[in-house]
């Protein structure tokens, strides 16, 4: 479980100090999100859980006439994002909890998030607040991880380190939104209608350089398992230095992309749509299958 207090303290500080590495790791997913966001109109964009601002900054560059606002609970991440965006006049960042945040006069027409919405303590109330502040025809687009079982890098690491399974798989954390039925219930309960989802795998770049394994372990030491666990991981896997990964050490990560169309004036409550397939009621929702790397988001 990762709490808001964690993000305000060590977790947020570690991610702020390592944003160039996390940007690199999520580059493939970021590009796919930007392609989807580019299809939506709107001059007021809200980035929820913006982190160090990579997605916000890219949107601001692509939409020079739009006003882009990034919100994050970590003061360190907001400071890093603000410094990175000093040369852009159409983006700003504020330290706030998106679950309760409101700003009179700013009604986002596009609400986006790259893996930033799985940490709400009360997710239904949080998404209800986002709906409340949104423009009448706003769209919500966000990504999150699928299950640990579909992310072997996470499930295998947990087994290797002998970590106990979570007592509540929906507790705030990276995999809190792994169950599509659970997420659909949150969105519908908050008032968002007709959410659609699509699974996508992407290449998570863990390490690069002359010794990509050591580079990856350096990243995990900063934002992941404690250093002693990282050392044990490398020892057990017998990963020698300089293995010669030409394009770096890449891990297949399984994510899912959600989209909520304009919420008002719709009668599609209780329906989940997958691209290219008939609408499915939540009770008939199948398990998410594998999506090859390079497939469309």
Describe this entry's structure for a reader.
It is a single chain. The chain is an alpha/beta fold and 297 residues long. The chain has a single domain, classed as Rossmann fold (3-Layer(aba) Sandwich), CATH 3.40.50.150. Helices cover 35% and strands 18% of the residues. It is built from 11 helices and 8 strands. The chain has helices at 4-8, 10-17, 19-25, 27-38, 54-62, 75-84, 123-133, 152-160, 180-190, 212-223, 227-237; strands spanning 44-48, 67-72, 91-95, 110-114, 139-145, 196-207, 249-260, 273-274. The protein has an 8-stranded mixed β-sheet with strand order 3-2-1-4-5-7-6-8. Strand 4, helix 7 (123-133) and strand 5 form a beta-alpha-beta unit. The protein is globular, with a radius of gyration of 19 Å.
Termini separation: 28 Å
CATH superfamily membership: Vaccinia Virus protein VP39
Integer count of domains: 1
Basic shape:
globular
Rounded radius of gyration (Å): 19 Å
Arrangement of strands in the largest sheet: 3-2-1-4-5-7-6-8
**Overall SS class:** alpha/beta
Q: Looking at CATH, which topology would you report?
A: Rossmann fold
Number of helices: 11
Mean pLDDT: 75
| Uncertain ranges | 238-246, 265-297
Tell me the helix content: 25-40%
Number of E-type strands: 8
Q: State which percent range the strand residues make up.
A: 15-25%
Give the class-level CATH name: Alpha Beta
Listing every helix as H and every strand as E from the N terminus to the C terminus, the arrangement reads: HHHHEHEHEEHEHHEHHEE
For the largest beta-sheet, the strand count, sense and barrel status come to: 8 strands, mixed
State the CATH architecture. Answer: 3-Layer(aba) Sandwich
